[in-house]
Amino acid sequence: MNVHPIFRAENRAADQLRPIRLTPDFVATAEGSVLVEFGHTRVLCNATVEQTVPGWLRNSGKGWVTAEYSMLPRATLTRTPRESERGKIGGRTHEIQRLIGRSLRSVVDLRALGERSIILDCDVLQADGGTRTAAITGAAAALSLALNKLVASGTLPASPMRELVAAVSVGIVEGQVLLDLDYQEDSQAETDSNVVMTASGGLVETQATAERTPYTRDQLTEMLDVASQGIQQLIATQAALLAPSAS
Amino acid sequence: MNVHPIFRAENRAADQLRPIRLTPDFVATAEGSVLVEFGHTRVLCNATVEQTVPGWLRNSGKGWVTAEYSMLPRATLTRTPRESERGKIGGRTHEIQRLIGRSLRSVVDLRALGERSIILDCDVLQADGGTRTAAITGAAAALSLALNKLVASGTLPASPMRELVAAVSVGIVEGQVLLDLDYQEDSQAETDSNVVMTASGGLVETQATAERTPYTRDQLTEMLDVASQGIQQLIATQAALLAPSAS
Amino acid sequence: MNVHPIFRAENRAADQLRPIRLTPDFVATAEGSVLVEFGHTRVLCNATVEQTVPGWLRNSGKGWVTAEYSMLPRATLTRTPRESERGKIGGRTHEIQRLIGRSLRSVVDLRALGERSIILDCDVLQADGGTRTAAITGAAAALSLALNKLVASGTLPASPMRELVAAVSVGIVEGQVLLDLDYQEDSQAETDSNVVMTASGGLVETQATAERTPYTRDQLTEMLDVASQGIQQLIATQAALLAPSAS
Amino acid sequence: MNVHPIFRAENRAADQLRPIRLTPDFVATAEGSVLVEFGHTRVLCNATVEQTVPGWLRNSGKGWVTAEYSMLPRATLTRTPRESERGKIGGRTHEIQRLIGRSLRSVVDLRALGERSIILDCDVLQADGGTRTAAITGAAAALSLALNKLVASGTLPASPMRELVAAVSVGIVEGQVLLDLDYQEDSQAETDSNVVMTASGGLVETQATAERTPYTRDQLTEMLDVASQGIQQLIATQAALLAPSAS
Amino acid sequence: MNVHPIFRAENRAADQLRPIRLTPDFVATAEGSVLVEFGHTRVLCNATVEQTVPGWLRNSGKGWVTAEYSMLPRATLTRTPRESERGKIGGRTHEIQRLIGRSLRSVVDLRALGERSIILDCDVLQADGGTRTAAITGAAAALSLALNKLVASGTLPASPMRELVAAVSVGIVEGQVLLDLDYQEDSQAETDSNVVMTASGGLVETQATAERTPYTRDQLTEMLDVASQGIQQLIATQAALLAPSAS
Amino acid sequence: MNVHPIFRAENRAADQLRPIRLTPDFVATAEGSVLVEFGHTRVLCNATVEQTVPGWLRNSGKGWVTAEYSMLPRATLTRTPRESERGKIGGRTHEIQRLIGRSLRSVVDLRALGERSIILDCDVLQADGGTRTAAITGAAAALSLALNKLVASGTLPASPMRELVAAVSVGIVEGQVLLDLDYQEDSQAETDSNVVMTASGGLVETQATAERTPYTRDQLTEMLDVASQGIQQLIATQAALLAPSAS
Lengths: 247, 247, 247, 247, 247, 247
Prior knowledge:
Six copies of one chain form a homohexamer.
Chain A: E1 20-24, E2 32-38, E3 41-50, E4 64-71, H1 83-86, H2 91-105, H3 110-113, E5 117-126, H4 131-152, E6 165-173, E7 176-179, H5 183-186, E8 191-198, E9 203-210, H6 217-242
Parallel strand pairs in A: 4-5
Antiparallel strand pairs in A: 1-2, 2-3, 3-5, 6-7, 6-8, 8-9
Helix pairs in contact in A: 2-4, 4-6
Protein name (chains A, B, C, D, E, F): Ribonuclease PH
Domain Exoribonuclease phosphorolytic (chains A, B, C, D, E, F): 16-146, 164-229
Catalytic activity (chains A, B, C, D, E, F): tRNA(n+1) + phosphate = tRNA(n) + a ribonucleoside 5'-diphosphate
């Protein structure tokens, strides 16, 4: 691996995550609730269990997991108008909520879930880069909590979540591969990538976008290496939260 | 006054507020940020200062104060679909955000504010009744914080906020006048009212709605008496937060 | 009571209504139709009986009463764009139609109505202040006409309308309490209030809003006194229209 | 001409108009206001003069005349939901308001009007067939009244309206050509046509639609003959309203 | 007839169609697909058979034929923004798709079709005037192809299409009646008309609109004469395509 | 590389593209027009040059390249309702048009383009998998044609397009890496990826999504190898089209 130390806020190393915090039960109203923090980025992830499925799954015996993502207007330094006021959901929001939904479905046995839906609401309270990867990481934990409740109540014999899944961003800034970019770094990145991986190391999603200049196969390899170790730390944090003694 | 003790959650007296908490700077991104809690009801109130005014105020020398209100989908025990997904703002939301805006403007000297707008975003994280009165109370504090910053930075010579303002609900449940209704009480109330009052005791808004059976002039008088003392406590809490030593 | 004579259009006394007129059967197409005039304010109120109820009332045995409110573009001196052209209903419209619906439901026994809905369409043909209070007053009469037809046709054994209900505005202009404000007075008012009351004197809705400066408890009392006598006159007018000899 | 007597409501002859009435100044708020009645069909036509033109006419020296059309929900025997509630204008409404606008522009010298717009709001209070032809006929009168005011106030040296224009429907019912169809006749018509013609006999719009079976050239000729004489009567009614002694 | 030779692109005679081409099976995905070309105007007409009918036809035993019309953004020399981006369908689009639908239904026995719907999607790839008449002409052919497949598969015993139908534009340019106007001619026309006629000569729709100055009865007669012979040529082209040997 | 022969339609090898065709000037109305075909997938790509830029680029001296993507309703075997009818753009459409825009901007010197925008409209006429990669490939060619015209007309001294760019899909079906999936293969794929690459081999976008089961690093490597050689063939096809002798 080829990560040189460069100056990052709070003396972070190039391959170092920001301080990660997962707070369970942030609201008492949801079936699963986790406030996830990646540094200053804070996303509230709430899981809802509904006893219906989308039309195309009716009578299929299979369930569904989906997500909605939104930013509070003042999650950002400059106020972002509400999508409810503008009367439509923007492209970026659509892209992110589809990504969260796909990531979570990759680790859930939808047949074992049965004909019910789980909706993960991911609302960004404060944004400092990496809101979509924080949302995936927090939503996976909230989903696990909600599924555990279905097991505890006897609704399901075992959790249909096969393993944990988490996500992190990696980017190239001034030629350097950096892990878990904050907003400042993200806006300077030449390449921006998001990686979603499972506890057992399987890749769920690899997205690497050249923002200014194309990147090479070697750079892609380095980004994936750095992302992998970051994700393993995130999954360890999730696991600690979900361990019996932590609840 | 004629308030008999009846059974309320956590042994609250009929004329007693729920535990009130105002947390300043809940997010670091907004010009003024207050998390307000009335018992289990939690509303994040963020103030944004913008250097523009709505069209009808251009070149008037006057500013504007307005509010937007929203509930996160899982603020409630049953998930409420997002208004951004439905593509339109509902009547209840419109009604509440207009009430918050009017209440705040009643204590601000819009000419002294100058041609700038302050937007108060009130997002309900958890709802247990009284979200609109909590929002007014928290938003008034967030507005004060934002105006104080404009004074501190030398943009304004003095805060254009003439006095504090707060709000509380009062209702009639089984013939009893109760202060600061939680969700359970609110859904049983025969009459539901919201009162907005200033520190000096001036009435800004009185709304009393018969949900099932009409109410009498005497009952209205009693509701206003109970609300008045509750609001004075709320304003004391705001004042404590805003006192120099608290910041 | 403390109402001093001040100059009003057409030498109206401070506590005097404008000329009130209720014209039944303004259109022949509706189950109940009343054109209501408060001075130059003219609102067409049409009642529709539908044999369905909103989803949440299905199989409850209970009916529903609701209202829609709209202004024709040239009801006002300056043309107001249609909400159908803008593609959404504004906050003021939502607020008014919710108020009309609540007011009417307060005097109807929804269980006796059975599983049917009555929709009151209130369309303002000409606006000179007080359109929402005129709408409530006219809609109550149109609702009564429609319910009487259900009795006449044998669909219902008796009208489920327990008593009449009407509404009027009261405001404080230059410190004076004035009844039934026209547009000119309304735009100068320091406080603007709307009161909805039943024939037996029960309060259904009290809304008093400080437009510029807060008002006192004494002023609220005076406004309610003036409103009460105005509403009794309105209800007398409704009763005359609905009396057997008038139909 | 080949019009056999057939039974029509109120013993109308096949080539006879329903009772026509034009009431000027139905509202006092608009620059020109006419309530037009074709039998039970009643349309309120209000003209608004605005000092702007659509973008594509800016700096062209030319004005614009346009129309908006709407039906009150209970203009019809069965309630029609509001387009504002559904959030979009339907195809039929678009088609009608485009027809009204084109018809009026055909008799106005847009260059002589100067860079201002006249909007004709046509709101159907009660519908019994022929609402679009009544709207054109009433709107032409309201437009004339509004333009006369611009002349009276010295804004324009002379009215830019070259001549009057009116419209009527003609249809084929059971093989018979009938003038000015009411709703009952319209719903039985094999062919439905609308003709717009000027005072000097020029055709502005001919629309003839086979609803069930195609029609012949001879039938089209007969429909146009019957329409012509009906329109001349409508224009005589407009002229009487607009004559100096009538105002 | 009174058609003088005037200069038209490619030396076209006043009563001459542009080169007409109908290409069947332009896409393989639709039940019936025809690319229709009137000179440079190219419209892709695809027929879809659905096994449902609109609500008002359920259990009526009757089917429905409807159309949707759209222009690709660069069908025109200046790009036209998509209606999907603007979030609503414009008035012109509504008018055209209603016209196409009516024209096709006039030649289909809806009872013989049974409870199924046929949707004709008419998408303009390149526009040079006459897109709506080309669309009707191409859609009638696509509809016939789709119905023939229902017969071939044994779903229907015989095609419910009674006869062919086609459409053409006629206009008056500098006092001359011209057939099948291209964009350049259309934008200069004093009168613009569209005629829809069946194979047996029955009129389905006659629309003649004065764009600048009213037209006379004689001019209308001449336009209909010229249109008739044009439509007979169009129907011959359709018939050739649909003849057994052509498929 | 580890690609075993498996059965594909038309005996395609696992690493073989479908027949590729680029037809220039498919419409005459656009500044650049290319019909791209990847087997049965056909996308019409039209480039529009506009002399404005989005607000955030005004006075920056820089231009913009963006894309819109849409499918005709019958591009698919089952009709897809139009987004214009539903009144909003779906998430998938947003995602695709953002991807096309980013891909094209990566090879354009926006400063050399100057303050003008190029919009690429990508309309799918027939869909059989890979519509987004076909769209990128065709749009790059249409963009190049449009830029060449700006050079030919003297508006720009040289084309601001630094190099060609193309895209292809790769997927894993039954454990095999397949290039350029058709619809049938795409719906069976365990992993679906899209790769965008420039003529010089730089990566612009790598998106690899596990549809059912996570994929390994080795599989990702193999997919990128297969995609690379496919893209080089696509770029050769673009280059042939754009070579002077081809125009």
